[in-house]
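Table 4 source record.
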Amino acid sequence: MISFVHMRAQFFQSNSRFMLIKIIKEDFLRKKCITLVLFIFIWISALLIAIGSNMIVELSHSLSDLLAQSRIPHFIQMHSGKMNQTDIELWASSHPLVQSEQTVEMINIDGSNVYLGENHTAEINSVMDIDFVKQNHSMDYLLNLENQIIEVSRGEIAVPIFYMQSEKMKIGDRVRISNRIFEMDFTVVNFVRDAVMNPSIVHSKRFVVNEDDFDMLKKNIGEVEYLIEFQLTDLSKLSEFRNSYQSSKLPKMGPAIDCHLFKMINALTDGLIAAVIVFVGFLFNIVATLCIKFTVLASIEEDYREIGVMKAIGIQQKDIKRIYLSKYVVLAGFASAVGYLISLFLNQLFTANMMLYLGVAPKSILQYSGPIAAVALMFLVVIVSCMQVLRKFDNITALEALRVGTLGDGVAEKKYFSLHKSKFLNVNIFLGLRDLFRRFKMFRLLFLVFLVCSLVIIVPVNFINTIKSPGFIHYMGIGRSDIRIDLRQTENMIERFNDMITYIQNDIDVDLFLPLVASQFKVINSQGVQENINIETGDFTVFPLEYLQGAAPRQDNEIALSFLNSEELNKGIGDPLQLVIDGNKRNMVVTGIYQDVTQGGRTAKARLPIHHETALWYVVSLDVKPYVNIKKKIDEYAKVFYPARVTDLEGYLLQTLGNTIEQLSFFTIIGILIAISVIILMTFLFLKLLIVKDCSQIAIMKSIGVSLNAIRLQYITSALLVLNIGIALGTIVSKTIGQGMVSAFFSFMGASRIHFVIDPVQSYFIFPMTLMVIVTITSFLSVASINKSYIAHMIQE
């Protein structure tokens, strides 16, 4: 000790930078394991924050660039049925907010007539609407993977990125369109980056073909649908324009969507992942800060007499603080720099899906400075925390330090926690538990680490289980059933629908069925303006939804609103609502509010008379009897009800959210590995520092005959109990706060109350047991250093 004090005294006298470096080096060499663990914590925190902030910056820039390059429309009205383009052009030319307008024709071809790549089976059970279009000329450009406007020749086709991923399609593959009387082949020459229909949650996908091929398809196959698109002179007046269009007599047999929704759905998956990574990085930054706090306190404890000597020989307090602070400035600065530099090599891995769907925007200064600023902020948090801990020097006097030689635990004995009162526990286990409760203020660091790591593991796993479960269908405004049949706008649609109902009624394999008709009506909003609202009509007690509030409509004057519709219309349970049906106002009462992330989150349910003239689509949900093979029944219905789309709800969910599930699963695995690594490192670091702090106590126990294994058992018991408390509280917090955070994120899409689906075997057995085994092994290895030579060394000191 005297030589180290002498070295520090030399530094303060010479104020040499070289001597400071030498002292820091000596400190690092004395505590190699502790220094390495602290370095890893700060490095992981810096790495995650740098990656997460880079994802957010890249997402913002790439999405903005995609929307700019594609000249995204500000407002789109989808329409199925006849229309008069001249009426639209006259209305647009006279409207003061319209800058430009175009009407996009799409040929909707049933999946049973489309064969992709090497597949010999058609896309018969796909939930996607397959639309063939030609390149647009004034806005809503369809781009290639370089964000350039796609141009294709005759016989060529550009395929949506969705199929590039899901069907593993590549350049040179074939796309075949075939029905009984018409067949046409295309060669894939490019992939489509579609700012309007990119994500899998959008159930429409546009294939780009040559104008001549488009005309050929239009004459021979499919149904024509329209996108009526507008760019405005003032985007801030988008709501005013929407109301103006809704009040007009222009075509509107379909949902209306705007550029704000495009941004949200394009940013959904990668935005969620980026937010999770930043949040996890922030949590680990807290862990790193707490670790440094504990390490500094342990260092002060270990060097207490040394500090007293330095104060006694006249070294100023600020200079002593400086030597300690310099060490952690160097450590945190180097670890933060390494974390940032490594993030530069890993960024591509984390942004690969984003770059595929959105493209790479030209680099700006913010894309470089954003992650650097985030890491710098993390570094400052660590240093400020360290400076606060070093205020302990203010309470140290030279006399007290030399006389006592320790800071003390500051723990009062509790007479009721006495050894002689323990009748059921092993003595060493009891001592380990007593030590935990006596010094819980110290053990709370380990507890917080276990709590944070539990959240990092539990919340993502529970969320993935939730969106993979059949129950997630309730967040899509759909009741649970075995089979769902969708019939979109086709020729003789009413006749087809009636034939479908008759067939199902006579099918002895069907146990229960519910026909639904989605129609468009007018609703009078809070400003007294009429706007469109899509309402499904039917008996919603057959396959009931889960309602946030209220219940299903049962009377002709009752209506249930989706969460977003209730928010925008400012309507709650029992409130009146006016619809306009056939030009007449009809008073309704809101009886229920449900969650729905489809159709922009804006739907409604009611038991109104069926209006075939305003019908958008028809749906039949049904349950088959227990002995029926659902897959075979789906194949049967797909042939009989062609061109209706027949799916089971599990397949419906998988195709809609498959890409999101895949991305989240990948990052969840990474998060679990990081969390387990942190638990191992933190357990090792904490017990090592605790052993240093307890050196005198360990020596005394050994001198009175306590075995080394008994001493080790005490520390292992304390660590395992802290782990179990951390896991238990982590499970509770994930179910409450974690669930609330996920719900807050999805509320923007229409689901404001997500309930986690928890796998009890996974959550309450596999996960805790795995962590207990890991902590037990780590604890045993950490306390294995308490051996006879170590005890002898402590006694000599």
